[in-house]
Task: structure prediction
Amino acid sequence: MPGLVAVDWGTSSLRGARLDEAGRVLEEKSAPLGILSVPNGDFAAVFAAQFSDWMTKGALCLISGMAGSRQGWVEAPYVSCPAGLGELVRHLKWIEPGRIAIVPGMSAEQGVVPDVMRGEEVQIFGAMRLAGLSDGLFVLPGTHSKWTTVRGRRIEGFRTYMTGEFYGVLSQHSILGRTLEADAPLDEAAFLRGLARSGEGGSLLHNAFGVRALALFDRLGPAQSASYLSGLLIGEELAREKPGRDVILIGAPSLTARYALALARTGAKVRTFGAEATWAGLKALQGEMT
Amino acid sequence: MPGLVAVDWGTSSLRGARLDEAGRVLEEKSAPLGILSVPNGDFAAVFAAQFSDWMTKGALCLISGMAGSRQGWVEAPYVSCPAGLGELVRHLKWIEPGRIAIVPGMSAEQGVVPDVMRGEEVQIFGAMRLAGLSDGLFVLPGTHSKWTTVRGRRIEGFRTYMTGEFYGVLSQHSILGRTLEADAPLDEAAFLRGLARSGEGGSLLHNAFGVRALALFDRLGPAQSASYLSGLLIGEELAREKPGRDVILIGAPSLTARYALALARTGAKVRTFGAEATWAGLKALQGEMT
Result:
C-alpha cells in the first residue's frame, strides 16, 4: 500500500500529515485556514499551497471534516447510519479521481430529528484501529460532543450535544459571564458539584441560573463558577447517556481529562486517543479501498 | 389610605405609576433609565427628575425590581421563602423614612443551590389581589422565567429558568443563528413540534443541535427554526414543572401567549395578567403597612 496524505480540514483549522505505508506519521503541518478562512473560496489554491510538495506522483490524499460540507470545497452528502468504512469508501467525493477525495460525514435519525457529524466518523474508525476494537461506546467531547455506538466495526448511531458551544455562549454572552472566569484552570471540587447537580434531574435552564445565584451568595468564586458550569454541562450528557461500561474518549487532552474525571464516577473504564485517531482513520479508509 | 407612587426599576427600564386611594392608575410614565443606565450611579437624581412632581407632601413611593440589587440604588437583601407581604414590609429598605422605600427580593433554596428573584414577588402579590386568589401556581415568563408556588397568600418557593436568555444567546451567538430568524412571528406548528420534542426527555444540549440538523436537511426554515427553538425551551420548563392544574401567567402578552398555547396542551387552565400586576402588588404592600 502506498503512502497517504491525510488531511483534516475543519471549520477553523487545516491540518495534514504525510503517512508511510504502515501508517506512521512522517511529517505534520497545520495552518489557521479552516473552511471559513479560505480566501475567495479558492480551496484548490489553499490545498496546493499547503500540500503540493507532498502530492508526488501516485500519491493519494484523503480529506475529512468540514471540507465536505455545503460551505466547504465540494459537498459530500452524509452517509446514513449504520455504516462502516465500506460505505464511506463508496461515497468518497473525488476532487481528482484516484488522487484527492473528500470523506463524507454521517447522519443518524433520532426519532423524527436527524443528527450529523463530519470528521468524527474518521476519528472513530481510527480509534477502533488503534484500540483493536470492533464494538463499543466512543465519545468525542468538543464544541459539539458526539456519543457514538459501534458494533461489528460499523457506526450504529450517535447523538450530538452542544456542550462546548453552550459553555462558550453562556460564559461569554449571558449573565453568567459577569461572575465567571471562563479560562480558569479546572477546580475539581466545583466541577464535581456541577456534575452532581445535573445528576439530580433538574433542567439545564434552571441549573444554569444556579451558577448566578451561588455567585450572588458568595458560594462560588469566578474560577469555581467556570468549573461548576462545565460540570453541569458535561453532567447533562452523562445523565442522559448513562454510560455503564467501557468508553473510548477521543479528543484534546484538556477536554478528555474532564470527561475521564466525570466517567470515573460512573464506574466506566476509559481509554483515550488524541489527534492520532484522525490519521489512523484515514489510513484505515485507504486500506478499505484496496 | 393615601395614594401611592409605584415604581418598577429594572435592569433596562424605569417605569412608574401614580395610583389613587383605591389603586386605580391615574398616570403612568417610563424611561430607558434601567439601573445599568443611571448616569454616575446617581439614582437620587434620576428618581427626582422622573418623579418629584408626583412626590407631593405625604406621598409614599414603593420601588420594586433591580433597584434593590447590589448594582442598584441601595441593596435590599433577599427575604427567604416562604414569605408573605408582611415579611416584605418588615424588610423594606427605606431611602427616606416613611416616604421612599425599596422592596426586597426573595430567595429560595433548591437543595443546596439558592434561587433569587427581584420584582417578580411584587407582581405575584399583585396578581393574587387581582385574581382574588390566595393559593396557586404563578408563572412569570421572561429572560429568567419564574415558576412560583403560593399557599395561604405566602410564596412558598420558586424556580428560575433562563429561558429567554438562552433563546437570546443561542439565536444570536451560536451556530443556530445561521439558519434562524430570531424575530420571526410565531409559527405555531413548529413551536408545538419543539414543545413535543422537549417532552420526550432528551437533553436540551442534544435537542438544540436538532435545530441545526433539521435546517441542514431543509426540514425547518429560518422562521420555523425560531419557533421550534422557542418550543424546545418552553417545553423544557413544562417537562420539569408538570403543571397539572390552574396556572396564573404574568408577563408581556407576546410571551404569555406562547405559554398559554403550551399550557393548553397540558390541560391547565390559564389566567393572564400584565403590567397591572406590578401596580396592584405595590398597592397591596402599602395596604399591609397600615
